[in-house]
Design goal:
Blueprint lengths: L7 H7 L2 E5 L8 H11 L3 E5 L10 E3 L12 E4 L6 H11 L4 E4 L6 H9 L3 E3 L4 H8 L1
Helix pairs in contact: 3-4
Organism: Leptospira yanagawae
Protein name: CoA-binding protein
Length: about 140
């Protein structure tokens, strides 16, 4: 993680569109209720999920390549830590991402370093709801 705690609020204020990598259709999972929370607080939420769904009224794409580049600047990831290297590779291949946010319980130091070396701001093992409640 290369974003200090003191920059989290500014980071969230600077990006009003969040692409959620792995936005679930299961309302009981954090990968669903965290995006709902952030949408209800004023952020525009776009999701990726391999299976088509319309739960929550989100715009859902099957993968990142389908999402316009300008909407991929801030990517919030809900994937297991062992999948982060392939997520980072996909993000780097597509370009345009400025912030990689790995939700609470998710981290992969080597993949995070690779993203950081490419100029991406990385936040890991942090929940958007917790951070929102702390700073807003």
């Amino acid at each position: 993680m290369n974003v200090p705690d003191s920059d989290i609020k500014t980071l969230l204020e600077s990006y009003k569109t969040i692409t959620v990598y792995g936005l679930s259709n299961d309302k009981t999972k954090p990968s669903h209720y965290v995006p709902v929370f952030m949408r209800d607080k004023g952020w525009r939420i776009i999701g990726t999920y391999p299976k088509e769904h319309d739960v929550g009224g989100f715009s859902i794409f099957k993968n990142l390549v389908e999402i316009p580049k300008e909407d991929r600047k801030f990517i919030d990831v809900f994937r297991s830590s062992d999948k982060i290297p392939e997520v980072v590779d996909e993000i780097l291949k597509l370009g345009g991402t400025e912030v990689l946010w790995l939700q609470l319980g998710i981290s992969h130091p080597e993949a995070e370093k690779k993203a950081e070396q490419a100029g991406i701001k990385v936040v890991s093992n942090r929940c958007l709801i917790i951070e929102y409640n702390q700073y807003f």
